[in-house]
Specification:
about 75% helix; 5 helices; Four Helix Bundle (Hemerythrin (Met), subunit A)
């Protein structure tokens, strides 16, 4: 397919989708760097080998997976012109997004409760990496929540129709990426100790 073909709207849509994927690829590279540093640091003598991830991280996995489902169902509702159903599903996704962040900070409190801090004399390199990886993901979820708020605003302004959902699709793609990313990060942190 020739990317220079099509209407201005089609070209604009392709350009925005491509920019989103460039952003996602750069995020993948960033997290690959942090997880690589984590793996390399495992050879340090002060690396913790026997630790349990906080239970709040497990709850976070469930919350973000459910939020991805509600976002997907909201898209289906919009495509079927079920605006009221889409509204409730978008609002549920928003609440779940905030619940995810709350659980992440609860996990940090569990780590601190175990006596490990991000820096200082009670810090540990293992837990510092966990703090960094989880916190960087939280920052991206905040960006996802901002995108979701824009989607909700545009939904209330009735900017989305079954044939015109570009903004919704971009935000949903980013949200689903964040979902998959957290599941993979959790599995990484769980299995690579």
């Amino acid at each position: 397919m020739d990317l220079t073909q099509g209407t201005l709207e089609e070209k604009n849509s392709r350009a925005k989708k491509m920019m989103l994927w460039f952003g996602i690829i750069s995020l993948i590279m960033s997290f690959a760097g942090w997880t690589s540093a984590y793996i390399v640091s495992k050879s340090r003598p002060d690396w913790l080998k026997d630790f349990d991830l906080p239970n709040a991280f497990i709850v976070s996995v469930l919350i973000i997976v459910v939020s991805s489902v509600t976002f997907m169902l909201a898209g289906k509702a919009l495509k079927n012109s079920k605006r009221s159903q889409a509204t409730w599903l978008l609002l549920a996704t928003l609440v779940l997004g905030f619940a995810f962040i709350y659980n992440q900070f609860s996990a940090f409190n569990e780590i601190i409760g175990e006596g490990y801090h991000f820096t200082g004399p009670t810090s540990n390199i293992t837990m510092t990496f966990i703090f960094i990886i989880a916190f960087m993901h939280i920052l991206h979820v905040v960006v996802g929540l901002i995108c979701l708020l824009v989607v909700i605003y545009n939904h209330f302004k009735q900017k989305y129709t079954p044939t015109s959902m570009l903004g919704f699709e971009l935000a949903a793609t980013f949200w689903h990426f964040l979902d998959v990313l957290w599941v993979l990060l959790f599995l990484f942190l769980y299995f690579f100790r």
